[in-house]
Amino acid sequence: MTFLISGLILFFIPHSLRIFADDWRTQFIEQKGEKTWKGIYSIVSLIALGLIVYGFGLSRTDPVVLWYPPLWTRHVTSLLAYFAFLLFAAGNIPGNHLKARLGHPMFLGVKIWALGHFMSNGRLGDALLFGCFLLWAIVGYSAARKRDRRAGVDYGQGSAKGTMMVFIGGSVVYAIFALYLHRLITGIQPF
Known about the structure:
The chain is mainly alpha-helical. It has 8 helices and no strands. It folds into 2 domains: 1-62; 64-191. The mean pLDDT is 94.
């Protein structure tokens, strides 16, 4: 569990600065520049993801079972993952109704993804991985919405074209991930 926990800590430190130390983050970017910030952020995130993937794999070789989830939860997780991919797309495709309505659909997508996977996996490594992401997404969404209200952020109305691109893009990426990449990355075939 050492690699998994280390990776999670290393991942969430830079990803939580906007939540817990936004002034420090802003000051760093002003002093060192946005490219420096993004470079450090990316390198730390990639190292952390490597540790998470490696540590999660190790946790599966000698699992500590906390509960035995019912089989139906796997099907629910697959459905929730589809909605999560739509929300991930909404966070990255400009001018869509989901972004206009929700403000931070990426956080909501992480919540849904993590909740589904937390519910359908009963090992300690799963609980750590998906529980941490779920907690981070809950806190992060709340902080982002408060920041938006203070700053008077308006996401506009969104357009039918942007929303259609969200559904097409999210559905295509979900299909590729569910049918091919999930097994390649995790060793588990969802369907």
